[in-house]
Amino acid sequence: MSEKEKPLCPIIGANGNIFNILGIASRTLKYNGMTEKAAEMYNRVTSSDSYEEALCIITDYITPCSEEELDEDSLSQQL
Asked: Which of 26, 28, 40, 41 lies closest to 67 in space, CA to CA?
């Protein structure tokens, strides 16, 4: 998946619990019409062997950002 296809996802600064991050990433993918990718990501993450591996899998599907970066990007797209 190219960087262009990966939606911005506000996981930087979020609670670091892997299930919280997985939920944020999953909602982001679904919001962007990528429901199949969300399911694929979920299956890969829940069968991973470590926290680090799970994070790497999640970032295969989304581009991590902070809430502030997401707000700035949304604003710039509206202009």
From this structure: 28
Model confidence at 47, in pLDDT bands (50, 70, 90)?
Answer: very high
Structure tokens that stand for 33 in this block: 């019409």
Q: What angle do CA 27, 30, 31 make, to 5 degrees?
A: 85
What's the rounded Cα separation, in Å, for the pair 22 and 27?
9
Q: What is the pTM of this model?
A: 0.85
State yes or no: pLDDT of 78 exceeds 80: no
What backbone phi and psi angles, to 5 degrees, belong to 9?
A: -140, 125
Angle between helices 35-46 and 18-31 (to 10 degrees): 160
Q: Which element (helix H / strand E) includes 63? A: strand 63-64
